[in-house]
Amino acid sequence: MYTIDRIYIDGAFVTPHGEEWFDLFNPATERVTGRVRLADAKDARDAIAAAKRAFPAFARTSQRARIDMLRRMHAAVVAKEDELYEAIIEEYGAPVSRGRWMAQHASNVLSEAARALEQYGFTRQAGTAEVVMQPLGVAGLITPWNSNAGFICGKLAAALAAGCTAVVKPSEMSALQTQIVTQALHDADLPPGVFNIVTGRGDSVGAQISSHPDVAKISFTGSTAVGKTILRTGADTLKRVTLELGGKSPVVVLDDAEFAQAVPLAIQAGFMNSGQACIAGTRILVPRPRLAEFEALVRDEVARTQSGDPRDPRTTVGPMVSQKQWERVQRYIRIGIDEGARLIAGGEGRPDGVAAGWFIRPTVFSDVTNDMTIAREEIFGPVLAIIAYDDVEQAVAIANDTNYGLQAYVFSQDTTRARDVASRIEAGRVLVNTLAHEPAAPFGGFKQSGIGREYGTYGIEAFLEPKAVLGVL
Ligand code: NAD
């Protein structure tokens, strides 16, 4: 049993003013493995005050100095990679291969931000004016549990690259990962107050950050419902807001696709991060004449997908993060059955031979229509919907018939066709015959998947505001 009883304010580990204790679980065993003392609204105010004090000096640091800081942060997180990897498996239940990727991602986002900052020009000319990109002020960074370390480091990297100071509010369910990341970032020896990390509840610490007049910018990753609350709360003080929210991403399989490649990619896109991914490809659109062929390959692929012990290297789907998430996913599987979708793999309950842990049977429905609940709502678990279409027009219409617009996938052997379909899909990212990530490219959602973009220079600019100075050129 571990005990986490410190938060990080003004360059020091301090005891929270908040007195609530929160249990931490290993989702693969359902056992309590530790507890965390949560920060409260006063702690959030103290953190905001520290970030406010640090801002004037930090905003004036040179680009070179901030690149060096990001590189030190990168090295410090790399030094904790193994510890972080263990925590990700223990606390989140990520399968080992995914866990390793996540632990590395946490440091990679820092070096990627350093690279983007190296190429970024803060001053440009517009007509007779000099335009200077100026940091916004104190940034509130609010993150979810499904890639905790990566989100903390990624948002912090972009905010600090821009010259903002920050208060981070990570998910209360990921306190062990947060503690390791915080220790690493402390080791990077940044000026006190530049970043502060306060683990607490959303409705106290999160609400305080999103309403506080001294916070200029909120960058939030999480559910669409909470994103809307933050947008409303921030409106009073006209905060700049970046929202990275939910998704219901379409996977458009064109009729010329090579199924031997498309099916494994579609299954990986759907089950990535154990299905707990905002970018998961959860609606698979398949040409009706090839539906039976596609389904047969999906059955084989899912049969090879192991949901179970995250430490077993053959496992690709780990447990849901909490009992609440497990129950939510079970409820959606039941709704799919009740609404008349046809199960072609998986179903309710735990996988065969698994007695404990919040594990789901990797599940695929076919005969789904786009008006069914399982095609409209984000399930956030390994549950996929196959929807048949008659022609490309209809496929594009179905792909876009959703409140979301985060990511989409197109599979085709013909790049020209794939590019044409990609151009018509309303999503922030479209991946053609690949699941690759490009850190220099913008990431974010159309429609109710969010506002604004992260990554690369787009991510840095989310923490900057242009100022025009006339008469100096
Ligand atoms: P959540 O919205 O419940 O919580 C996210 C964070 O917001 C947590 O730190 C939480 O404590 C905080 N929060 C809750 N209420 C708040 C409030 N009133 N004010 C301020 N902060 C508050 O989401 P979750 O369950 O942690 O994560 C899952 C969701 O995140 C999914 O919907 C998923 O799609 C989304 N997500 C999006 C992306 C993306 O980049 N678009 C990435 C990962 C996850």
Number of domains: 2
Residue windows where pLDDT falls under 50 for at least 5 positions: none
Q: Fraction of residues in helices?
A: 40-55%
Calculate the mean pLDDT score and round it.
98
CATH architecture of the largest domain: 3-Layer(aba) Sandwich
Biggest beta-sheet profile? 7 strands, mixed
In terms of DSSP E residues, the strand content is: 15-25%
Structure notes:
With 473 residues, this protein is of the alpha/beta class. The chain folds into 2 domains: 2-245 and 448-470, Aldehyde Dehydrogenase, Chain A, domain 1, CATH 3.40.605; 250-439, 3-Layer(aba) Sandwich (Aldehyde Dehydrogenase, Chain A, domain 2), CATH 3.40.309. It has 15 helices and 23 strands. It has helices spanning 41-59, 63-79, 81-92, 96-118, 148-162, 175-187, 202-211, 224-235, 259-271, 291-303, 323-338, 373-376, 392-400, 415-424, 456-461, and strands at 2-4, 7-9, 12-14, 21-26, 31-37, 123-126, 129-135, 138-142, 165-169, 195-197, 215-221, 240-244, 249-253, 281-287, 306-307, 315-317, 342-347, 361-366, 383-389, 407-411, 429-432, 450-451, 464-470. The strands form 6 sheets. Strands 17-18-19-14-13-20-21 form a 7-stranded mixed sheet, with helices on both faces. Strands 10-9-8-11-12-22 form a 6-stranded mixed sheet, with helices on both faces. Helix 2 packs antiparallel against helix 4 (96-118), helix 3 (81-92) packs across helix 4 and helix 3 packs antiparallel against helix 6. The longest helix is centred in the N-terminal third of the chain and has 23 residues, at 96-118. The radius of gyration is 22 Å and the shape is globular. The mean pLDDT is 98. The site of nicotinamide-adenine-dinucleotide has 28 residues, from helix 7 and helix 8.
